[in-house]
Amino acid sequence: MPTPQEIARELDVLGTSARTVEDLMTVIVERLQRHRSHYNWVGFYMIERSLLPGVEPVLVLGPFIGADTPHKRIPLNSGICGAAASSGNTIIVDDVNSDPRYLACSIETKSEIVVPVRVRGEVVGELDIDSHAPAAFTAEDRRLCEHAAALVGAYLERTAA
Ligand code: SME
Prior knowledge:
By secondary structure, the chain is an alpha+beta fold. The protein is built from four helices and six strands, in the order ααβββαβββα. The protein has helices spanning about 5-15, 20-35, 80-85, 140-160, and strands at about 40-50, 60-65, 75, 90-95, 110-120, 120-130. Methionine sulfoxide binds near residues 69 and 128.
């Protein structure tokens, strides 16, 4: 198994060669899930902002690996995902069943990390990872996941108009 530092370097290469941001998110999800055995569900949600007045922004499920989830669209005031996007902070929950914000995807999930993706400081989406193990996410996982999310943000900054 590669170290988190080796995975980060591998993702850096992918960040420079991906043809689209969808491709980049797809390959990040795939590498993280392949190399980190405690990452059981790995996916991106991106914020959809409506031009229509009164329509609230919503997180929309993008590339993911893992069990199918009923949560394909999550309002920013809902779930751990919504909390991370609206606060702009990484959230690690060691025991999802004791967190009242938690929206269940799989009954096997015990812990979760959600890391915002930023473009020029603004939150545009997030990387969400669930583990079947309690308290699975260490400071090292946090660094790796924040690195992966930052790669997507940097890609969008380079390519978005
Ligand atoms: N658990 C998340 C919802 C997403 S699924 O886990 C894939 C939440 O509480 O927002």
